[in-house]
Design a protein that fits this description.
The chain is an all-alpha fold. The chain contains 17 helices and two strands. The chain has helices at 2-5, 9-28, 56-78, 81-88, 90-116, 118-125, 130-138, 149-163, 165-181, 186-208, 226-240, 254-257, 259-285, 291-320, 326-352, 360-382, 386-391; strands at residues 213-216, 219-222. It has a two-stranded antiparallel ribbon.
Length: 392
Amino acid sequence: MKKKTVRTLWVDYLRSALTVLVVAHHSSLAYTTFAHFDKSAYINSTHPVVDASSWIGLDIFENFNDIFFMSLMFLIGGLFLIRSIQKKGSFVFIKDRFFRLFIPFLFLGTLFMLIAYYPSYYIAYHNTNLLPYIKDFFTVEQWPVGPPWFIWVLFLYNLLFALFYALYMKVSNHSAKLISTLARRPFLFFIALSSITWLLYVPMAFHVGAGTWVGFGPFDFQLSRIFLYFGYFSIGIFLGSTDFNNELFSEQSAIVKKWKLWFLLAIAVYALLTIIANPITRMVKQHQISAFAGWISYFTIYAVSCTLSCIAFLTGFRKLIRTPRSWWNSLSDNAYLIYLIHFIFVIWCQFLLLDYNLPAITKFIITLVVALSLSWWTSYSLRKIRIFKRYL
């Protein structure tokens, strides 16, 4: 009960809803039309399991998620850090994050990914021997990190925050008044956040490639988005330095009052992004516009889509979430472990469905329901153990 008193209901529910979106996102990846499997090194595949059944609707769903939801996860990850470090002090804060983020990432993450990726090894080599699989996992595949990449990057950002806490506080003290005034200026808020999103993502993605991942061992990250994610994490920190629940995101805020408009705009801009992809590609190939102009045009709309989706989810949850629900409280309590463990159930379910002649959407729904239910139940069971409940 003590934990609940220092949280904000709509933020907790938004975080858990995004976790469900993560499960749904990974549940869809086996059934997209662009999915492919690389038998020589399954880590180079678009997903650990690729099914013959596919549906373009899942491409659209997957891309919608991919554009915004991790940026929003990092923003939420920064919201309460100033309060936390003020309460605990830097040393205890770092120690707490080390045990809550880094240790679960390195040890539980590795164990869970070893279990999760086994079907991929079998598909590639038709070999059930565990020792060659483990050797391949750490050598050929180079220690696949899977979804827990988010956790080690979040830990790194937390560490940087603790080390540069005084600088963050200096900036936040200057920015708090400005942030609060944006509650009355929704258009300015949108322009500011869109501009920040563009600056943090588009130049970097153009320079290194939008889909570029780098790293060593399990410490992988998407290079093209490293500034974007850190920027949204920092925005979360600066928002957390204000009374955002009663100012920028109060129910009387002009930003929150327009929550329906934000959702409509988010859908419209994402639809535009989806529609223009092929025409822009065709115009570039026909030399009607330069490759640079085509690229900038597409990813400018991409940045706006990211911004609008983030605002829509923030304002929608602030407006609609008022009353606690026991099942949603349970989902929020177990969201972290669900995130850590869900990939096992996603991959194994997709693997077991390979030989069934079912529509892609049916397989997706089965995978989502099974993976979410089993990861939720597993988390609930593990958190009955004191150490799991304390840190996870």
